[in-house]
Amino acid sequence: MSDARANILTRLRANRPQTVPTPPVYAKPLGWDRARRIDEFSTRMQAVRGEVHRVGDGDWVGWINRELLARGLRRALLGHGAIADAFAAGAADGFEITRYDRPIEDWKNALFHDVDFAITGARAALAESGSLVLWPSAQEPRLMSLVPPLHVALLDADQLFENFAELIDKQGWSGGMPTNALLISGPSKTADIEQTLAYGIHGPKELITLILG
Amino acid sequence: MNQARAFHHRIDKALHDDQLRRNFRSALSGIQAKREIQFPDDTQLQALREQARAVRASALIHQPELLERLEANLTANGIQVHWAEDPEQANAIIYGILEAAKARSVVKGKSMVSEETGLNQYLEERDIEVIESDLGEFIIQLAHEPPSHIVAPAIHKNRREVAELFHRFYPDIPYTEDIDQLTQSARLILREKFAGADAGISGVNFAVAETGTLCLVENEGNGRLSTTAPRLHIAITGVEKVVEKLSDVPPLLEILTKSATGQPITTYFNMISKPRQPGELDGPEAVHLVLLDNGRSRIRIDAELLDTLRCIRCGTCINYCPVYVQLGGHAYGTVYPGPIGIALEPQRLGLDQVGTLTSACTMCGACAEVCPVKIPLPTLINRLRAEAVNLQRTSTPLAGRGSLRKPGEASIWKIWQRLYSSPGLYRLFSFAATRMRWLTPVSLGGWTRYRSAPRPAARTLHELARQEGFRHE
ipTM, 2 decimals? Predict the structure, then answer.
């Protein structure tokens, strides 16, 4: 269909609007300090039914041991890397651990049916919108934060940015994007029936953010 | 005048469906209230609108170069780019990709552009199973209806109607009108589809030229599942969706979600730049983007009508339209309803085909006031009304120009123009009209079906003013 390409581009070039507006620079610095960012993030996340807990750096495994077993959640999905290894080393006896170590095609059904929760890291978070920022990878694949009914994300409190504009500027995203980058703001939801909010439609029904530090 | 008759028939049907009108009224007033909470400070809102307008306007000016850059960067990232001039080409390209990959089943994320091309029907006729996975789209797919709103496709259905649909198609699931339970039923039904589908098809909200990134905005996770779980992902979008830089995205995203659904942000903002890379364990092995023109490059030729293309498909103009709230989306009979539909569809499909849509506007201006990219919708609609009855030659390549011109109406306006431009004739006419006002007809066709006929006053305004002592009125 190279004809289509040439035809479309020719038509687009045939008439070029004359005035060239310059988009104003999007700068809305809020001047929020670390404590305020944590606070705003938590408020926003909780407003869309995301759980947020602050835990000590060394205690998040203990938190999951205490909380999730009590909720009857045993089947954990881990990736690879420091987070997965720390949990595997410190997990209480009741957990059944699955590692995401094969291509999805080899175990899709098990992923969709036999996992209660997945633990991943978060690259950053946004205070103003209450969003986690994930760059899934070979170590923590994309479906981990999507298919299991509960997603537990670990967030370093120093990686909280004011908003998306600040994040992509400070981290230089325009220099190169990963396969997939995500903003996640709460558990999956819909309002398609009578504009009434209902949680847990296709993605995780619950999202827990553990803020470390 | 077949299109007018058909349109009036659909309007009549909608206006006599009390349930439908109740559903729309309740849904839209809720959305308006939620939107207004998101913009407590009008100065900030106006600044954000101005910025979103500028980003989109600038992208349209540089559109051919941005599309080439987008194509180059996507290709370098491993995403294959296809160009389609019309729906037939787009459908054929997508079917070709599916065939080559031996894909027999497709899960779809929401895409209005695929509604433009009639993709579902095209693929189903070729024995490919297509499942809409957005809850609203899933509901209307079961009901065999088109979307009645571009953001909330099943907005016209209430919970009882959804419950009956689910019960009819999935009798094993116990009947319920509880929205949470209906949502859980849909989750279970669709999970099997996501796990089993050979391919996913999605739309695109913004395509970033700078990095070769496809951005998808959604709440449910069905868009992420459709673009991640199957081994093949095909995205389809209009050529106008390209923006230049990644830093253009945050203001557009903010104003899109706040305007469309009154949310500070949606649950998921999904940025896709590559297919699965070596070592990665999930995501599609192949990603394709189909860029559809379908009349968009023609719209661009007119400096005024170009503004139509700034649209980011948030649906806010629809939510605030006093005509839409009475009629609902199906009455329009086009893919895009409401103010943006009235402005876009006659340009896309021709005034001779859907030009009467322009009559479904009261020129109240609510849409222009809320549009996040400041599209002057009433101005565009007014222009299209004029073009629909304009026979003069211009360079504007609008299909069906002048096709709605009625000789009787045209001669009345011709006479009025003559009267109004000649003081002597005007004085004579107004004197005669006031003195012979008893001659005014009582019945004036459609106008007097619901109103009384206007009757001139006993004296002209000029006479009254002179009576009051004004000399230079």
Answer: 0.96
